[in-house]
Amino acid sequence: MPPAFTRTPHRLQWRHGHHVLEIEPWGQDSVRVRAGMHRVVDGLPGALDEQPAPAPEPCRITIHATHATLVNGLLTVVVSTGDGLVTALRTDTGEELLREQPPHFWWPGARHFEAAGAGTYRIEQRFAAYDGERVHGLGQHGHGRFDNKGTVLELQQRNGEVTVPLAVSSRGYGFLWNNPAVGRVEFAANGTRWVADRARQLDYWLTAGRTPADILARYADATGRAPAFPRWASGLWQSKLRYRDQAELLNVAREYARRGLPLGVIVVDYLHWRNLGDWDFDRRDWPDPRAMVDELRGLGVELAVSVWPSVSPLSATYAELRDAGMLVATNSGFDVHGDWPDLEGAPEGIGVAFYDATDPAARAVLWSRLQEHYYKLGIRAFWLDACEPEMRPGHPHNLAYAAGAGSEVANLYPREHARGVHEHLTEQGETEVLTLVRSAWAGSQRYGAALWSGDIPATFAALADSVRAGLNVAMSGIPWWTTDIGGFHGGHPDDDDYRELTVRWFQFAVFCPLLRLHGHREPREFSGPIGTGGGPNEIWSYGERAEAAMTAGLRLRERLRPYLHAQLEDGRASGLPLMRPLLLEFPGDATCWDVDDQFLCGRDVLVAPVLRSGERSRRVYLPAGAVWTHHATGVRHPGGAWVTVPAALESVPFFLRDDADPFADPLDAAGSFAEPVTDPVTEPAGPPGPA
Fold this sequence. Notes:
Helices cover 20% and strands 28% of the residues.
């Protein structure tokens, strides 16, 4: 039977033998492309759960002898009759955006299905490569690059490596690999290849946009928008590995109050339980959590608690989850996926299981414990740590979830984990819901997930990499993000070099959606490989000069909070993140596509964090199309030029756009970074400065 097209008013189908391709509009300027062997089915796990609102103009489908076209607003898709290859064009200009391309003239198409058993396939999807293309987004990765072109990325959740498979291209398209399977993507010079190790069909979403901001708006339409950002979440989060008991934590909160330092959230880290999976306080160390919550609320401080998805056989919950089939299972061997220790009573090597977050009933069991042991005490802020989930060793191909085989659905876990907490909190009537998460997938943003950078080193190189990682998270449709100020692994508060790093990191974080002090500081304590305690990590722990610099940053953050919330609320409608690469606001300025060590905090504040040890000046690019006022000096500069400004340890260079005033009240000495009043040096626009 020769290749043939069929159509309905809203769907184009091409079939050749067992190979079926279906394309349908999926929101304005967007399509969903699915392909399978024998059939295309609905209802598989993914991020496109609901059809977004249709485009103002209905799509047009036309079938010709040699090809068929589907036009949906700015996006035109052409499918060739003979081989079913897809080419995406921009409707108004005819410019090619993306084209499927086989790797070889004898290769059977750009879509490859290799049987993997039980109705699944190893699937490859190949596209042409384009010289000069830049690719942003793809989640969070530690490779230190903002442009993902030339990289190979594993599609698998790990600590600090977060898979959100949205690619935003400089060619004017956005591409979502709508498949939670384990796999990889290769952005090579001779082609792009997406791979799902095991899946039932191919599924991707494609959109066209005149600007990157348009693409993010269409993506938000397709996968969901973030809820309102909680007022309590924009202040300082104080955390460390770990406060050992109620008395220690309360003393820290009281000291913040005594010093007059505004504190928004204080965090109870892991091991506050007896056994993993209890999801409860060990009352020997936390004797009266209700009184603790009440005292903190009186100080204006929210209490957040760490929640791990791990379940010890010694926990009160293990038997219930096991007997109900609500633990992540295995195809062979015991349902044990890690050796995370309990502080008490666990024989060495006993191992732990994980509750199955892809099962709504298991999410309900988890919530019943959180509600009974935390929420009823007044706790509404949850830190969903290790939610990849962190299994040791990682073996997704041997796992079985309620949603499917591990190879098919493993990347979905962190989103469904956040979903359960969000949905149950909103059912309680909570309107300000945020969970801090270490992993995410496409659509996590609609469940109030705030991603952080994971367990990264305490180095200037890691700080610089974090800026680029945060920019890619922003381009992945995840608007809430932060880092561990100072990095996670190590760092001694008495070390002068580390004090400098902490100050610079704090200054960067002042302009991030969340401002969070956390880490495992020296001197560190361990039980086997697991950290059980560490040195101090409060603002006053780093000496007088660092304390003064961070206090100034904290005062500035407090005055910025109304602006931050206004920008975050605007972002709910626009799909734009708070932390924005320059190219998001100024896509017509070619230099902005090269700058990856600066960012815009909302629309009006341009931030150039200091990212090198010992650096006391900063070269900054000011985008064309605006006038920029240097905050410290009040000097105004036309855009389209580089300037060099002073950057004493107590200062971070930032500029205000077109006379914007993002501050809640007038600047004063106590609330501004103390920068020497020195005229900046202006250069014409040219090649970007060093990274």
